[in-house]
Design a protein that fits this description.
four-stranded mixed β-sheet; globular; 54% helix; alpha+beta
């Protein structure tokens, strides 16, 4: 981190639409604010399990609100999240462990692809409603993000390796250590202290804390 730049870590999982919103907004702010933005792919399932959290949509009234909320946020931030009532069931039935391991593998080998690849997973999952747990869909996402088929194939083989599994587990545990209980979890390192912000609607507060 260069002098005076605030390190901001974004812990995210592509299963989370709010993570996509937070991701896109921070991608825009990183060119305006004096921050060093670091993407930290983690596993939301692991965080929920460790903290005893439940998917918010399991509460019917909250699910009803989230539908409206995500539509409003998508419009406001101009992020193409497409959401309908049956998406909550679809999300509960889809595991993103493979996708998040794939994203972790790119972070370990070719981090310059981390941003476009993560975005492409959200687009396939939240705009095109595809099942990103299938290997052929993962490869299609990788192609869209500009990865060669050789590289994509290599990464797909890496997702079952202990190195990738451990890295994702460690990142997830790190998020929990910072106090995360859901996603997105944004950690700003300011005045030698980590400051945790939960959700995509606390970014103005983040700016205010770091003096932006």
């Amino acid at each position: 981190v260069s002098m005076g730049r605030t390190l901001v870590e974004l812990f995210y999982d592509v299963v989370s639409p709010y993570s996509w919103l937070g991701f896109e907004v921070l991608c825009r702010y990183q060119h305006i604010w004096n921050i060093d933005l670091r993407f930290r792919p983690a596993f939301l399932g692991g965080i929920m399990q460790a903290t005893g959290n439940k998917p918010p949509a399991m509460l019917p009234k909250r699910a009803e609100y989230m539908l409206k909320d995500i539509k409003r946020m998508a419009k406001y931030y101009q992020v193409p999240v497409q959401i309908s009532g049956d998406d909550f069931q679809r999300v509960l039935g889809t595991g993103t462990l493979g996708a998040m391991r794939f994203i972790t593998a790119i972070d370990m080998t070719q981090p310059q692809y981390l941003e476009p690849l993560s975005r492409e997973f959200w687009i396939h999952f939240w705009s095109q409603h595809e099942d990103i747990s299938q290997p052929e869909n993962i490869l299609a996402v990788a192609r869209q993000a500009g990865l060669s088929s050789e590289l994509a194939q290599k990464l797909l083989e890496m997702i079952s390796s202990p190195a990738v599994k451990n890295r994702l587990r460690e990142t997830t545990e790190e998020a929990i250590k910072y106090g995360a209980f859901g996603m997105p979890a944004v950690v700003a390192h300011f005045n030698a202290e980590p400051h945790l912000f939960f959700g995509s609607d606390r970014l103005e507060l983040l700016g205010s804390v770091i003096g932006e």
